[in-house]
Amino acid sequence: MKFAHLLALIAAIFIAAFDAPPAFAQQNVKVAAIAESDAPKAGSTTDLVIRFEPRSGWYGYWKNPGEGGVPADFRWKTPKGVSVGQPSWPAPIALSYMGMTSYVMDGSYSLVFPMKIDASIEAGTQIPVAFDATLFLCTKGLCSAQPVKGSIDLVVGDGAPSVIGSQMA
Q1: Is residue 91 part of a domain?
Q2: Which of 6, 19, 33, 148 has its CA 20 to 30 A from that of 134?
Q3: Is residue 53, in this structure, part of any structural domain at all?
Q4: Domain residues for 53?
Q5: Would you list the DSSP string of the chain?
């Protein structure tokens, strides 16, 4: 019975930590959205890159965070006929702290999301793409669930690479 009470207390503290407003919001990470093409072609899939630049000394968690972290959670807002898939992640580093091993993204990193444009969307159609995400960022034993937002406006076109997108290859 004591174990059940202890488990309930730990769960309550964990939930309260996530429900509490962050003491330091988006200032600990800069976020940018970059498209492979500013004019993606209808009927194609193009890459959408979300770039994260945590403040020095801060790190985020990989898709499989290991024993002590929480992965990023993304919620997308796209028009009908546009969908965003699961990201490709760069390789993490292993971080051991208090006997637990976690897999983290240390320093700046980018996630690459495939974005599918339905063939029925006409050329010239505006494609506003927005996301809300929750990142679990840590530094020196202090962690915070940090909400971040980003958006990018595209127009259905010929699929030509954007200036920045052409540098991604």
Answers
A1: yes
A2: 6
A3: yes
A4: 24-166
A5: -HHHHHHHHHHHHHHHHHHSPPSS-GGGEEEEEEES-SSPPTT-EEEEEEEEEEPTT-EEEEEEEETS----EEEEE--TTEEE-PPB----EEEEETTEEEEEEESSEEEEEEEEE-TTSPTT-EEEEEEEEEEEEEETTEEEEEEEEEEEEEE-SS-PPPHHHHT--
Residue 96 has φ and ψ, to the nearest 5°, of -105, 130
Number of domains in the chain: 1
Per-residue pLDDT of 141-164, as tens digits, reads: 788 888 999 999 999 999 999 876
Q: Which two tokens stand for residue 66?
A: 């290991």
Distance CA 53, CA 106 (A): 10
Rg (CA), the chain: 19
pLDDT in tens, 92-144: 999 888 888 999 999 999 999 999 999 999 999 999 999 999 999 998 878 88
Assess if residue 10 is contained within a domain: no
In a domain, residue 41? The reply is yes
Q: How far does Cα 47 stand from its chain's mean position?
A: 14
Q: Alpha-carbon distance 59 to 43, whole Å?
A: 37
CA atoms of 148 and 29, how far apart (whole Å): 8
Query: For residue 141, what is the domain's CATH number?
Result: 2.60.40.1250
